[in-house]
């Protein structure tokens, strides 16, 4: 399906010279600093088609995530994209999950179809418009978190989900967040900053109430579980751990932190070190990069192994 | 041992396959088979397609052995086809051009379950249902549940990105795999993904899943395990027409309810299944809709009630709620054995697997019946309606002159109708050889070129399951000989 906005974007990208896409710069340094000299472009904007009955939305990459969620909320829907500002394309290129990923789903599972502009300036489609699809190779998953180094995302189709009728944040001091995760059925988030624990519950009113009662059996330092407006403020840097490793976090290394229990993401005030890749994996990743962008012109300077903003 | 070796000493092919001795050196004589019976058995999977005879068939028991087999194949310039239980329906595991076949069924150990990380480490030959049976007492399960789950392997699920009825709410295999050890087509071992929240690389784990054996062989798989639901409610709704059932499905989703599963069976398949499992399916209905909602107590009660309301508004004639776990199991047994029950109607079937937008289901179903009628074929429909995943079964007798050709023509028309309705070629069975040459109907040349770039990054020499997924113009140069699905592949 031809789309003038996409074609115009492809023309802008062209086939020569280093080029990068600028969204809202909320995670601008993720993966390292952009090499100077790269031409900065903006991806096309706008919601093309929301199909509430299919639970899908077709949206251009430059659209602000807030604008998308505002449109979807009018139909009682949402996506897995994180609520932290930024653009749809930026959120997908970075691949960061929402802090309530256990309830809202993972960004990498939300992308059904991607239309991107290749290093040669062509519009390429990966995936498909339906909620279920295993036709051919999964370029959608490859593109989530690829920092625009394989192609420049122009338009996507995302899976949407219904917004649960009730949502509550609860907070307690001096409690065991792992015990909280264990006793709850499917919390949307269990967050821990070394002292306090926040739990996010979503669902039908009676279920949320039942979960709350279940939670009251988990001992606290006193004061029990109290309702609060929102979760904690998240420090800017993202570290990635196995969920079980969160039992031994070192505040001296991380600085102030908020850990996403059951997920493994830790938002910290200190930035994480570059993470090593096994040589065989690095070689494979380099072959993939070379296959999609032989001249290295797409977002030069960005490297997927670096999480630090 | 000696007697078994003697029993296998059938007449040898005129020229012994030179790679056999090298493979025996790697695996020992017992785990390399090159007799005509074994090789011809593995020319098939569960699809209607058959390849040529397989090359030597290998049964490795470890990652190291898989590496050694692959390296041996590379040294002899031979292709490699991985194979699990052979339940695939798109011909993904059939051999083209005497490849070395690597069967993973002897790598069938569940190595570790870690509830803190909510992960199970398994070998690729572990049977899907065996893992869930193992996890059940711990309060967990493996969410993908293909109809073949009593036989299919998790390695095969990874290769096909398999689904099943419950992937409506839980997603297909790709959502449930955290990490993979993969023997690449050159024999190199690489770990894709990881247990941490954001593993440091491109999501090559995600890209590998659904690669149908063309990107390498997974030898160790870390799957996410899912907490069992607190409450499961299973409902059976009967309708006069299949269109009413399909409309109900769309209305349920439009109402913001995502059940765990929504399955539709038409009149013919319902009758066949009922005479098989005696689940009490209504025989006078035009179609039945099986809906399952799971989760906490209250939410499932509210959702089940709304599903019933929506069903009645769309013409449901009867509604039955499974009262006991036994009744629920029986209703599901009917659904999951539907393909077996088809044998009561006709000797052979060809199972299609396209996806359309849910709102297009009623119209596309009508077209499917018309297409079958035009080609003088019987069709039955039993499918994952909740995500628009059609599974029309075209029934035929392969001994009947011209039957295969009519099935092929009808299958192509079903694909075309699905794509015209905004759908895709495959929802869960994959492309294999079946839909390889249909790929240009969904993707442009440039799109296919980019898929091939991914493929070539994993397999520059095109030795991994060549001739599958991508049509020859976009695939490996050295298999141009397999330009079209070879004559005789059907049936």
Protein architecture, described:
- The complex is a heterodimer of chains A (309) and B (491).
- The model of chain A has no long low-confidence stretch (mean pLDDT 95).
- Chain A is globular.
- In chain A, 51% of the residues are buried.
- Chain A contains nine helices and 16 strands.
- By secondary structure, chain A is of the alpha+beta class.
- Chain A has two domains: 4-162, Uridine Diphospho-n-acetylenolpyruvylglucosamine Reductase, domain 3 (2-Layer Sandwich); 166-268.
- A seven-stranded antiparallel β-sheet of chain A has the order 13-10-12-11-15-16-14. Chain A has a five-stranded antiparallel β-sheet with strand order 3-4-8-6-7. In chain A, strands 1-2 form a two-stranded parallel sheet.
- Chain B is of the alpha+beta class.
- Chain B folds into five domains: 2-103, Uridine Diphospho-n-acetylenolpyruvylglucosamine Reductase, domain 2, CATH 3.30.43.10; 110-227, Uridine Diphospho-n-acetylenolpyruvylglucosamine Reductase, domain 3, CATH 3.30.465.10; 231-339, Alpha-Beta Plaits (2-Layer Sandwich); 346-420, Alpha-Beta Plaits (2-Layer Sandwich), CATH 3.30.70.2740; 436-482, no CATH class.
- Chain B contains 17 helices and 20 strands.
- Chain B has helices spanning 2-7, 19-27, 36-41, 63-75, 128-135, 154-160, 167-170, 204-208, 242-254, 267-277, 297-313, 325-336, 338-341, 361-374, 403-420, 439-442, 445-458; strands at 32-33, 57-58, 80-83, 100-103, 110-114, 119-122, 140-141, 177-183, 189-193, 217-224, 226-227, 231-239, 261-266, 287-295, 318-321, 348-351, 354-355, 378-383, 389-390, 392-396.
- In chain B, the strands form five sheets. A seven-stranded antiparallel β-sheet of chain B has the order 15-12-14-13-18-20-16, with helices on both faces. In chain B, strands 5-6-10-8-9 form a five-stranded antiparallel β-sheet. A four-stranded mixed β-sheet of chain B has the order 1-2-4-3.
- The radius of gyration of chain B is 23 Å and the shape is globular.
- Residues 1-9 and 477-487 of chain B have low confidence and may be disordered.
- At the A-B interface, strand 7, helix 5, strand 9, helix 7 and helix 9 of A face strand 9, helix 8, helix 9, helix 11 and helix 17 of B.
């Amino acid at each position: 399906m031809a789309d003038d906005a996409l074609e115009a974007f492809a023309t802008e990208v062209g086939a020569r010279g280093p080029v990068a896409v600028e969204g809202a710069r909320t995670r601008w340094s993720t993966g390292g600093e952009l090499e100077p000299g790269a031409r900065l472009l903006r991806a096309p904007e706008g919601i093309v088609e929301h199909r509430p009955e299919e639970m899908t939305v077709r949206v251009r990459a430059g659209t602000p995530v807030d604008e998308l969620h505002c449109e979807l909320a009018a139909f009682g829907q949402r996506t897995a994209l994180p609520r932290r500002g930024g653009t749809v394309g930026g959120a997908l290129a970075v691949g960061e999950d929402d802090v309530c990923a256990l309830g809202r789903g993972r960004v990498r599972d939300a992308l059904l179809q991607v239309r991107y502009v290749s290093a040669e300036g062509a519009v390429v489609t990966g995936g498909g418009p339906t909620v279920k699809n295993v036709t051919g190779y999964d370029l959608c998953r490859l593109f989530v978190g690829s920092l625009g180094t394989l192609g420049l995302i122009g338009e996507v189709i995302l899976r949407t989900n219904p917004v649960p009728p009730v949502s509550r944040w609860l907070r307690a001091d001096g409690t065991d967040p792992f015990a909280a995760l264990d006793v709850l059925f499917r919390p949307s988030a269990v967050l821990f900053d070394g002292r306090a624990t926040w739990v996010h519950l979503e669902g039908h009113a009676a279920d949320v109430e039942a979960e709350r009662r279940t939670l009251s059996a988990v001992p606290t330092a006193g004061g029990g579980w109290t309702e609060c407006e929102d979760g904690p403020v998240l420090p800017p840097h993202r570290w990635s751990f196995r969920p079980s490793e969160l039992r031994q976090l070192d505040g001296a290394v991380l600085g102030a932190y908020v850990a996403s229990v059951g997920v493994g993401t830790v938002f910290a005030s200190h930035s994480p070190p570059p993470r090593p890749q096994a040589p065989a994996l690095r070689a494979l990743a380099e072959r993939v990069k070379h296959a999609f962008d032989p001249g290295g012109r797409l977002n030069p300077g960005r490297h997927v192994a670096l999480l630090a903003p | 041992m000696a007697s078994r070796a003697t029993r296998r000493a059938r007449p040898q092919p005129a020229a012994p396959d030179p790679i056999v001795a090298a493979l025996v050196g790697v695996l020992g004589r017992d785990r390399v088979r090159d007799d005509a019976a074994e090789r011809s058995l593995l020319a098939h999977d569960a699809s209607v397609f058959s390849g040529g005879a397989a090359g030597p068939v290998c049964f490795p028991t470890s990652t190291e052995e898989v590496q050694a087999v692959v390296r041996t194949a590379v040294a002899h310039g031979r292709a490699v086809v991985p194979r699990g239980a052979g339940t695939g329906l798109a011909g993904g595991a059939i051999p083209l051009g005497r490849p070395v076949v690597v069967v993973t069924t002897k790598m069938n150990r569940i190595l570790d379950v870690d509830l803190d990380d909510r992960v199970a480490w398994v070998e690729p030959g572990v049977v899907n249902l065996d893992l869930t049976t193992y996890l059940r007492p711990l309060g967990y399960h493996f969410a993908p549940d293909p109809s073949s789950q009593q036989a299919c392997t998790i390695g095969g699920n990874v290769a096909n990105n398999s689904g099943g009825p419950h992937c409506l709410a839980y997603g297909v295999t790709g959502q449930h795999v955290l990490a993979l050890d993969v023997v690449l087509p050159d024999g190199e071992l690489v770990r894709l993904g990881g247990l941490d929240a954001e593993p440091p690389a491109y999501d090559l784990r995600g890209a590998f899943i659904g690669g149908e054996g063309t990107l390498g062989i997974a030898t160790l798989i870390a799957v996410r395990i899912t907490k069992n639901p607190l409450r499961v409610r299973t409902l059976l709704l009967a309708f006069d027409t299949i269109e009413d059932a399909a409309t109900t499905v769309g209305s349920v989703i439009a109402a913001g309810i995502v059940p765990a599963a929504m399955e539709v069976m038409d009149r013919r398949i319902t009758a066949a299944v009922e005479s098989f499992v005696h689940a009490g399916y209504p025989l006078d209905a035009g179609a039945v809709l099986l809906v399952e909602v799971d989760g906490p107590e209250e939410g499932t009660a509210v959702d089940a009630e709304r599903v019933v309301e929506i069903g009645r508004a769309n013409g449901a004639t009867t509604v039955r709620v499974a009262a006991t776990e036994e009744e629920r199991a029986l209703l599901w047994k009917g659904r999951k054995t539907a393909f077996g029950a088809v044998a009561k109607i006709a000797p052979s079937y060809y199972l299609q697997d396209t996806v359309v937008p849910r709102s297009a289901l009623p119209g596309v179903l009508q077209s499917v019946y018309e297409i079958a009628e035009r080609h003088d074929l019987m069709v039955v429909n039993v499918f994952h309606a909740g995500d628009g995943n059609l599974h029309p079964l075209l029934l035929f007798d392969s001994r009947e002159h011209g039957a295969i050709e009519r099935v092929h023509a009808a299958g192509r028309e079903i694909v075309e109708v699905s794509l015209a309705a905004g759908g895709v070629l495959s929802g869960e069975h994959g492309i294999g050889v079946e839909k390889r040459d249909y790929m240009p109907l969904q993707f442009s040349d440039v799109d296919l070129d980019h898929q091939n770039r991914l493929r070539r990054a994993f397999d520059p020499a095109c030795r991994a399951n060549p001739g599958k997924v991508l049509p020859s113009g976009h695939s490996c140069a050295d298999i141009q000989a397999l330009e079209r699905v070879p004559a005789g592949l059907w049936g």
